[in-house]
Amino acid sequence: xxxxxxxxxxxxxxxxxxxxxxxxxxxxxxxxxxxxxxxxxxxxxxxxxxxxxxxxxxxxxxxxxxxxxxxxxxxxxxxxxxxxxxxxxxxxxxxxxxxxxxxxxxxxxxxxxxxxxxxxxxxxxxxxxxxxxxxxxxxxxxxxxxxxxxxxxxxxxxxxxxxxxxxxxxxxxxxxxxxxxxxxxxxxxxxxxxxxxxxxxxxxxxxxxxxxxxxxxxxxxxxxxxxxxxxxxxxxxxxxxxxxxxxxxxxxxxxxxxxxxxxxxxxxxxxxxxxxxxxxxxxxxxxxxxxxxxxxxxx
Length: 299
Known about the structure:
11 strands; 10 helices; single chain; 15% strand; 7-stranded parallel β-sheet; Rossmann fold; globular; alpha/beta; 299 residues
């Protein structure tokens, strides 16, 4: 009998790629969707509005919770900041409630989080042992992870602290437009470390975590940290466009909002994938330049 995995948030960039990878490895997928099912394996749910039948999760090898309103949608108005939090807490709380109802022996819970958990930490190497930062996104991640960890009463919980994904539909989307227009250049000072991971390694690392039954926080980030300048320069080089137009931090904060800029663009976070390294995960794209080249070739 095929091992089964339950996934929420499976329609996005990461989720759709993850489902394809898991199926190729022989897993049956139960996908939680917020609409009437249109194919076998889909189950409709309404997180935050109605409880989830625990029988849907019973017997699964793991429950993987992805999704949430996009942090890439800017600016972050007060209303959208509320949506960022609620879109993560409602599904997490609904899944945790079902897992707790199953009790001891419930499936492992693999919950999305983000490297934004660490906030702005210049001069530090950020491994999974580091506490949460103080930016808006850091505090959001801390609350999100706390909600997921309620399931530790009955099962193991993994927290996927993922970096921005190097993909034309991910972190590269706005950068590619600026680069195409010849406006690529330093973001803020440009020397701040910007965590990153290729889509292939994002998916591969999640499969690695599930199959090796790794619990606790796991940094899903490339093994060789890169600065914002190095990422932007790699993109400009691949697109054969200039890299020269600096965007000062004050201007970004004025246009995009202080919380978004400080959480995403100017935060200095040298994130180290310590757990993946110690459990012998092999990165397909160990450098940001390799990740950018692969993303543009596939895109």
